[in-house]
Each structure stands twice: as C-alpha cells, then as structure tokens.
Amino acid sequence: MSKRIGSRTVALPAQPGVIAWASVAGQKEKDGPYGDRFDQVIPDELNGENSFEAAERSMLETAVKLCAGKAGCTLHDVQMLLAGDLLNQIISAGFAARNLQIPFYGLYGACSTMSESLSLGGMLADGGFADRLICATCSHFCTAERQYRAPLELGNQRTPTAQWTVTGAGAVMLSGGPAKRRARVVLTHTTCGRVIDLGITDQNNMGAAMAPAAADTITAHMQDMGRSAADYDLVITGDLGRLGRDLLLELLTQKGIDAPEERFFDCGCEIFSPRQDTHAGGSGCGCAASMLCAHILPELAAGRLRRVLFMATGALLSPTTTMQGESIPGVAHAVVLEHREAEEG
User: Fold this and answer.
1) Is 176 helix (H, G, I), strand (E, B) or coil?
2) Residue 203, SS3?
3) For 59-83, how does the pLDDT look when each residue is reduced to its tens digit (9 = 90+)?
4) What is the pLDDT of residues 173-191, one digit of tens each?
5) Residue 284 to residue 167: CA distance in whole angstroms
6) 150 falls in which pLDDT band (50, 70, 90)?
7) Where do the domains of the chain lie, and which CATH numbers do they carry?
8) Burial zone of 7 (CB within 10 Å; 0-12 exposed, 13-18 middle, 19+ buried)
C-alpha cells in the first residue's frame, strides 16, 4: 500500500515518536532571546579543543549523548545516527560518529540537514527499520566563516544582507517501536524538497538564495495535503533570516498560497535579538537544530503548539563553485510534527 500523497509528500502512518531531544549552543546564542532554553552552553569558541573544527565536533557529540541520556538509553542502544554539517566531507558528523561508535549515515543538505535527517529518519522508523535512531546536525560561526567566506583574522566587513552562522547543535531521537508510547510529539508526514536556483550569486545573501526553495516545498506540501497555513500553528523555516523570510512570504503570495505573517516563524529571525547586530539574522545547520530542540519540541510536548510544519533550508554552494561564478541552488525539506496526548495505561 502506497504511503505517497500527491507529488512529493509521504504519510507516516505509524507516526514515529520524538522521544528525546537535546541542544547545545554558544555564548552569543546564550545572549539571545532563547538563551535559557538550551541544554548546554559551551564556555567559548574553542570549547576546550585545539581548533574551531574540533569544537564543533565536540558540540555534536555532546548533543547526541545528552539526547540518548534523556531517552534513558545508552549509545549502544541507538541503532542509527543520521547526521551532517556544513564542512567539507561533513567532518564534524563523521568524526563525531567515529567517537560515538553508532552506525552512521552521513548526510549533506547544507542548512537543510536537520529536516532532511528527520525526513529520512521518520521514514526509517515508520518502516520498522529502526526502533531508536538519532537525527542530528551542528554548525559553528568560526568554522563556517573559514569554510565559505574568509578567516576571521582578516576582519572583513559583513554586508547588511549577511547572516551570522549559529554556533550550536541539536539531536532528536525517533522511535517507531515500543519506546514511542511515551512520546508527546509525533512525526506524521514529510515532503521532499527540490533543488531550486533563481540565479543568486551573492554568497552574503543566503536568504534570497534559499527562499525560492522554501516557497516551492511549502507550495507542494499544501497542495499535496489539501491544507493551508491555517492548518498549522506555525510554519517554521530554518534560517532564511529577515530578508529571506520577507521574500518567502512574497513568493508564496505570488503562488496563490495564503501566507499570514503571524503563522510564519523563522529560526534565523528569532534566535538573536536586534541588539546583537547579526545583520539579517542567524543561519547554519545549528540554527534550525538548536531552536527545534530548545524551543519548538518543548512547546509541542507541552501542548502549547499542536501541529507545526518544520522546514530547514539549505544553500548548496561550495567555495569552489563560488569562485567559479556559479549561482547558489537552494533546497528545503519539510516534516509535520504534532502533539500527541498521553496514552491510557
């Protein structure tokens, strides 16, 4: 029996449970509006390590360990780790998996990796292929600047459209087995994104590059499901920032999709306050991941949110393609997360 709905959406009738989650963040993120909600805050950019890259890897390890601990299990009990990051050869996730010794699927969706891992993890759990799996990702301001733009030592001035890569990590445990009975949040549907490229070439304007992909996925999801934004408490994007979010709402309106501003929540707009001067807001894999685990899932578990569409957004560029003058493709994957009441008995 097919689980497909429409052109790009998949139903998850077993409704895998979100049984635990954990977030790690940096000092700048601690100073933002949600700073008191992160499970752990690292002391500084190096986090006791010898390099920024090692600091990022250790954040991801910490998030996974915290998540497993919250679920009341050991790392040995986790059957799969689906994780990725922004760095070449996804070294944060790969090296973390080396140390954690959990069977590992490495993913790369740029900043869309959190929703990509939840989408794939949800299908694996729904299909009975794993009773306990962890979906995770991370980013670090200093590693991302060195990877994509310029080393911090150069002191380059940031443009008004630029976003601040979040130093953070998030990990979510899904279960399609007996453990899901205690879950207060379930994953019910997922919509796969397409790669959309409208010709943006400015690597300091990620919001404009990713917004078209976000609009495309939301449009497909609403059409497949026969729903509108009114069917969700929030439509949550990962890291479009202020410019990208405004562009998303404009694109949706052009497509005939109802887009009331109050129902659209962008993690990149919310994670920092205006007084922190991050220009267009936050970005990075850790932006959506840390906000999901620090704010959104707790709100769903408590029943203050009942149903959300969560969609992280990614810019699929590299330093090589940027120097070759290539444009920046974007992708966005969406998952539906819903509150579930406690089971009797």
Assistant:
1) coil
2) coil
3) 999 999 999 999 999 999 999 999 9
4) 999 988 888 899 999 999 9
5) 8
6) low
7) 18-179 (3.40.47.40), 184-339 (3.40.47.40)
8) exposed
Burial pattern 91-126, b for ≥16 Cβ within 10 A else e, equals bbbbbbbeebebebbebbbbbbbbbbbbbbbbbbbb
Dihedral over alpha carbons 6, 9, 10, 13 (to 10 degrees): -80
**β-pair type (307-315, 330-339):** antiparallel
Q: What's this model's pTM, rounded to 2 decimal places?
A: 0.96
* Number of C-beta neighbours around residue 155 at 10 A: 7
Residue 277: what residue type?
D
Nearest to 52 by CA among 24, 99, 108, 91: 91
By C-alpha distance, which of 151, 136, 168, 110 is closest to 318?
110
What average pLDDT does this structure show over 305-310? 98
Q: Does residue 345 surpass a pLDDT of 50? A: no
CA angle, residues 259, 261, 262, in degrees to nearest 5: 120
- Nearest to residue 342, comparing CAs of 126, 181, 131? 181
List C-alpha distances in Å: 180 to 117, 218, 289, 335: 18, 28, 21, 18
Closest CA to 194 of 225, 220, 167: 220
pLDDT at 201: 92
Return the HEC string of 112-168.
Answer: HHHHHHHHHHHHHHHCCCCCCEEEEEEECHHHHHHHHCCCHHHCCCCCCCCCEECCE
Q: Hunting for tokens 């026969």 — which residue is that?
A: 226
Dig out the tokens for 28 from the structure. 């700048």
